[in-house]
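EI: anyone free to look at a 549-residue chain?
SC: sure, send it
EI:
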Amino acid sequence: MLKNDHWILEQARAGMIAPFEESLIRQIQLTPAQAVPALSYGLSSYGYDIRLNPEEFLIFRHIPGAVVNPKAFSPENLEPVALKRDEYGDYFIIPANSYGLGFSLEKIQMPPNVTVICLGKSTYARCFTGETKVKLVDGDFSFIELIDRAKKGDQLYGYGVENNEIVVQELVAPRYIEDSNLVRVTLDDGSFVDCTPDHKFMLRNGTWVEASQLKIDDSLRPIYQHSSHGYPTIFDSVLADNLESRKRAWRTVHQMTWDCLVRHGKAEQLSVDDCIHHKNGDIFNSHPQNLESLSRSEHLKLHNQCDQRYLAGGAKFKQCYETDPAFREKINKKLHSPESKAKAAFGSRDWKLSHENAQNLERCRTKRWSEADAKEKQSEVARQGIGALHRRNDITEEVLVSALLETGTIRGAARYLNVDRSAFRRFPQVMNSFRSGTLQHNHKVASVQTLKGIAPTYCLTAPETGNFALSNGIFVSNCGLIANTTPLEASWRGAITLEFSNASSTDCRIYANEGVVQLLFFEGEPCMTTYGDRLGKYQNQEGITLPLV
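SC: here you go
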């Protein structure tokens, strides 16, 4: 049974926790005249938040050729970290992608029928509700689904922002963090995110703001997914703002995934004659396991076997092609041989430049503007826009801005809206902004509200960028600092050795004399043998205790 604050208070007064704070402390008195906000510690409703001791903190250091062996642990793998102080308090620094050891300020003496579970505080592990969905290269999945996939051994690949550009990256360690208070961040499209108040959101300009500090109309860094020739494509509107980088604003998901594999040495750089092929034919699944590199010729042959657009001769030809390997090889060789390709290219070029083609084009133009019916038809087309589904007065400034930034070109916006480009002349300011690269597309904050009660929260780690994309098209920070400690068994005594890993790509502070880990106390029937009865090797530890075998 989970024990409440009444029970914890009674046991602490009997010596279970020392030193002990009977309420949740939220401020530290640095000097007689200066008090600063603290990462809370002390007694809570159903637990106790312990503090990090300022006396000692160690981090792993890299020793070339050295391998950490838990059965023969060498203290040389660790180096002490100096305690620092500024206006926020005392702190140690854990380098990016590093690991550190500290110990609790409090000493614990466990009753013989109680076990403690230790959880990292949400201040260091910012998190989301379990149904929040993360955008991956093979679909959108909730944290609950990601945890299940990770347990099965699946690798997870999503998106992040690195050097102001959207990239594909591997995401690791989706996990439950703790039950936390929440805020709801609602966007202008009606979607929302429920998360801890201190979780950081990336603004369009690349800066970070905690959820509780977001303001209405704050523009978040967006990620848009569209289709290019049927393939899922990521549109980076921030790149599209800049004329120099606008060509890179559109990238297919499978190409971005392949670039990620190349960056980490898991695939070779593609040559101009190579293509990326989806093994199972599902172009919406760009997981690395579903991608392979094929030569352009092999790729065409593979698709020709199942795409009858490339087959001529009707049902009989199709039957021969599918059942006779020799016939199929002959046709493929003929279609894809260098000679056939060169002949087709020269034929197309010669026809475009031929006198006959020029005469045909001239006859068509003359007919189009000489016949009364044709003139009326062309006038109506001009009034509505070529191939229009909407009249020109249906094109508003908002619609035009969205089309320009989603397609990336004026011609593309005209095709997207099914109007002639002349329909855009009514909006010279929008067009000038687009041509100069100052037109922007935003995901804006509509509201931020505090939710009642607490709920289970979850997060994951993005080792490469320290951030990841949610399914509603925004970027958030990952859990940077992860606290880990083993359960405290019945009758165990001592200071708790605390393990911390900084999974983010930036250095992280960890504050001494402030809360770092929450203890949850569970009471059960008395066990046959307690930790004290069997003389456990970590009994009565005082400071940082290294692995013992």
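EI: The domain at 5-125+480-523 is CATH 2.70.40.10 (Deoxyuridine 5'-Triphosphate Nucleotidohydrolase; Chain A).
SC: 👍
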